[in-house]
Specification:
This protein is about 45% helix and about 15% strand. It starts with a helix and ends with a helix.
């Protein structure tokens, strides 16, 4: 069952009114309960207690209530021994007017009117194997701090033009980090409360020229022990010795003006105690421009996106262990020991965000467990944490980011020790800072991972590789990065040059991972799980024994940086030599348990579709449209077309309609010159044509080998597979939201299709039915690449590999009829563009005849495939992948 299908079923139940004898069984059916189970439940074989009560083991305990008694009935169900004994997920009650439910796993409750149930259908999605997934919220204080730091940074650059170059970038970034530490330290008790901001306000607000000297004095004092401070001003001697490398050496402080001092004071007014330690990553992302971020490999990932990696990789499991052992003293002590064995390794750690959040979440689990042990056993909290910073490892390309990662970890430790002290009265660490974190500065693709995070001798050690490595498609990669890809992949596969840079981290993870105690998960571009990159990357990983243990399907990037990246991402978790069986597949805010996740992030077998130049399905070849390579000289507008008709009517037959993707979808009109060889010489005598031919000749002579080849025939298109029969046009990029691919039939006698579209020349009508089906769009969405989230059609990956069953003459006739039905339905709305007619928000409501025609086409085609229509795209794809495997095996 899909989420949409469940919602529609609940809506139908509500629409028919409350029927006390049928409601709960209809409800079960809506969430996919088997018919045999519903029949058994109707027979009362699993009734738990009382009249009109129903128990679906491990799922629902239901009882009708008297009028106004829903709450009392729920309390009775919650207290009933069968609810606990049968491990029931939900208790539900209704009197036909009010409706109440409780999730016994999460403790969440639902109270609404019966008629409002459809609004809350998502509450029960776990009954269909689709778990609800709550994404953490952004911290608004982080966002404010990021913005204020960015303004301060920009103001300092404006005040100090000589600091804009590469030679001062490290100094400026290090200076900002020193400021952030001071702001954080005075709000958390590391420094005396308000000491830093009061010093700046007192000595610099009225005279901004003093700021450079005051900050130099303060930072100098913080680098010195007490006995070495005799020459420091009295205001600087108030600051303690910090050390830890942060204030080591002579300070490098820029000049301040009144505006930059004001921005610093504004930043100090925030409560930095509430700020996540990953603020450093946010700062870097906000103050370094996009090009520099790409060059330096700094990628900031927000907390919600970090938890999409960490939660399913290991945090959810730890939390579930806590819940399962909540009253088990021995089990809780075992969890504390397991916490001490967890190692987290980020081989592209940037400023340490993944490591910081992992550390923070593990410490929170530790505090919860110790608090529970104290409740049930009088356990005395230990002085030292079971979660040691020594178990956190990272590799980072940029020295400043690597140093920031170490400081971020130290601040995270300080924050969690403060929470520990609040909970148990244990003291917090004191200054000076100590070196923390196993962070190595270097290229993660050239540093041996085992030299940074060695495999431990303890069999109980669990190592988790995490991160958000640089993405970088092949076009954006530097020569150094292309060399990295070559070095990593040239001995693995012959096809690798078009891989995204992030693929390297998956390959090296496959080398590093050994057994079930080691896992890896990365944020990545969705490109590595679709289109031709699947064939480049995943066969090698699968051969190495890698399995996908969880995944987040495509989501648009969002973080709290000033500029959100325009990238569509996935999260993929992998493990080696494992038969996990219970894997999690996330889509948006829900997930479901599945038996396998294939490289396309589908619940299906690990089949990889390879592009092929010839159709495997017995269908005719599909080509890209005609390519002029003419600098626009063979394309004419309305005025030029009218000129030919009026002044050169003998040549009007050489004018053809010229359409590509945009013209077809938006209903635009263009024309081109389609000139036969035997007419070219005569046309050269007319200035209108000769000038265009001369322009084309000059353009092609300067082009590539194919263009040069056609320089002597400027009247021709460089690539012209055109045929004059019935031709099917397919745009090469489709909107992600379409229910169907927007395809059309054009008359090749009068229309030329441009290379912005794909074409099936000499098509038969039943081909239109195949391409216009849900079966085909499901296949294309899965195996072809995308531009961001839009669908990119590929003839070699999409059409040539599309599994088509053997079609009898009767089948072809039936599909011809449904295809003609779609075309006739389109004509009903002739005054609307294709884009309007296939707008998913309007198609069913505004163009019902077209929608119904597509439904008939799907029903006929899917019955040919399967003997019955499929329930959803999951069924369609599972069926198609089985057929694809058989089709390849038979070739």
């Amino acid at each position: 069952m899909t989420v949409i299908e469940i919602e529609e079923s609940i809506d139908a139940i509500i629409a028919q009114g409350f029927h006390p004898n049928d409601f709960i069984f209809d409800f079960f059916a809506a969430y996919g309960a088997p018919k045999s189970l519903i029949k058994q439940l109707r027979g009362g074989q699993q009734d738990a207690f009382g009249q009109a009560a129903v128990l679906w083991r491990r799922s629902v305990h239901f009882q009708l209530s008297g009028d106004g008694q829903v709450g009392l009935t729920l309390n009775a169900l919650a207290a009933h021994k069968e609810t606990e004994r049968q491990n029931v997920r939900y208790i539900i009650s209704t009197d036909g007017h009010d409706f109440g439910a409780r999730d016994m796993k999460t403790g969440e409750t639902l109270n609404c009117l019966f008629d409002e149930l459809v609004v809350h259908f998502g509450f029960f999605l776990p009954l269909a194997g689709i778990e609800r997934y709550k994404i953490a919220d952004e911290n608004p204080v982080d966002i404010k701090a990021t913005g204020r730091l960015a303004k301060l940074y920009d103001s300092i650059l404006q005040d100090n033009p000589t600091w804009k170059g590469d030679d001062k970038r490290h100094a400026l970034n290090h200076f900002i980090t020193q400021l952030v530490f001071c702001l954080f330290a005075e709000d958390t008790g590391i420094l005396p409360s308000g000491l830093f901001s009061e010093t700046i306000t007192t000595y610099c607000e009225s005279d901004s020229t003093q700021a450079q000297k005051v900050l130099t004095d303060v930072f100098t004092a913080m680098s010195l022990h007490e006995e070495a401070r005799a020459d420091c001003p009295s205001y600087a001697r108030k600051f303690p010795h910090v050390n830890g490398g942060l204030f080591k050496g002579a300070p490098d402080v820029p000049r301040f003006t009144k505006g930059s001092v004001r921005y610093l004071i504004d930043a100090a007014q925030l409560n930095w105690k509430e700020i996540n330690p990953d603020i450093f990553g946010s700062m870097i992302q906000s103050i370094v421009n996009t090009d520099q971020r790409g060059e330096l490999g700094m990628h900031y990932t927000s907390v919600p996106n970090i938890l999409k990696v960490l939660d399913p990789l290991f945090l959810d499991d730890m939390r579930e262990q806590v819940n399962a052992n909540w009253s088990n003293k021995k089990g809780l002590h075992g969890i504390l020991q397991r916490l001490s064995k967890i190692r987290v390794f980020d081989p592209a750690c940037g400023s340490g965000n993944f490591l910081v959040i992992a550390y923070r979440e593990l410490r929170a689990i530790e505090i919860k467990v110790i608090n529970r042990l104290a409740e049930i056993d009088g356990y005395a909290p230990p002085l030292w944490s079971h979660v040691a910073l020594a178990n956190f490892y990272g590799i980072e390309y940029v020295d400043f980011a690597a140093e920031t990662a170490k400081l971020s970890l130290w601040i995270a430790e300080y924050q969690m020790n403060s929470r520990y002290e609040d909970a148990f009265g244990k003291p917090t660490p004191t200054l000076p800072l100590k070196e923390t974190g196993n962070i190595v500065c270097g290229n993660a693709l050239r540093v041996k991972w085992e030299s940074v995070c060695p495999h431990g001798d303890d069999p109980d050690d669990k190592t988790y590789i995490v991160g958000n490595p640089p993405y970088l498609g092949s076009v954006q990669q530097t020569p150094e990065q292309k060399e990295d890809i070559k070095r990593i992949f040239e001995n693995r596969t012959r096809i690798y040059r078009d891989l995204d840079y992030v693929a390297c981290w998956f390959a090296l993870s496959a080398d590093y991972l050994r057994d079930k105690h080691q896992r890896a998960a990365f944020v990545a571009t969705n490109s590595i799980c679709q289109g031709e990159q699947v064939d480049m990357l995943w066969p090698n990983l699968l051969k190495a024994g890698i399995s996908i243990i969880f995944a987040h399907t495509s989501f648009k990037w969002k973080n709290n940086a000033a500029q959100n990246a325009g990238v569509t991402c996935v999260v993929v978790g992998i493990q080696k030599n494992t038969d996990v069986g219970n894997r999690k597949l996330y889509t948006g805010t829900v997930f479901r348990h599945v038996k396998n996740i294939n490289p396309y992030l589908l619940e299906a077998k690990n089949t990889v579709v390879s592009k092929t130049s010839e159709p495997l399905n017995g269908m005719p070849r599909m080509y890209k449209g005609c390519q002029p390579t003419d600098g626009g000289n063979l394309i004419i507008n309305e005025d030029e077309r009218s000129f030919i008709y009026e002044n050169l009517p003998d040549f009007s037959g050489f004018i053809k309609e010229y359409i590509g993707s945009l013209e077809f979808i938006r209903g635009k009109m263009r024309w081109c010159l389609w000139i036969p060889d035997d007419a070219a010489e005569d046309l050269s005598n007319y200035e209108f044509f000769s000038r265009r031919f001369a322009n084309i000749t000059e353009l092609r002579a300067k082009g590539g080998s194919q263009a040069k080849e056609y320089a002597g025939v400027p009247h021709r298109f460089v690539f012209a597979p055109h045929q004059e029969g019935k031709n099917i046009i397919l745009p090469r990029v489709f909107s992600e939201n379409r229910d169907y691919l927007t395809v059309g039939v054009v008359d090749g006698l009068k229309t030329i299709i441009s290379d912005s579209a794909t074409v099936l020349y000499g098509a038969e009508t039943f081909h239109f039915a195949l391409i216009s089906s849900k079966m085909h769009i499901a296949w294309i969405e899965t195996v072809c690449g995308r531009l961001k989230t839009d669908i990119r059609y590929s003839n070699t990956l999409g059409w040539n590999t599309f599994p088509v069953p053997a079609l009898s003459d009767e089948d072809k006739e039936a599909l011809t009829t449904t295809a003609e039905g779609i075309m006739l339905a389109r004509d009903t709305y002739f005054d609307k563009t294709v884009a309007e007619r296939y707008d998913p928000d309007r198609m069913r409501k505004d163009f019902p005849e077209l929608w119904e025609a597509h439904q008939r086409n799907d029903e006929v085609l899917e019955t040919i495939y399967n003997g019955r229509p499929f329930k959803n795209d999951t069924e369609r794809l599972e069926h198609l992948f089985v057929r694809y495997s058989a089709m390849v095996d038979n070739k």
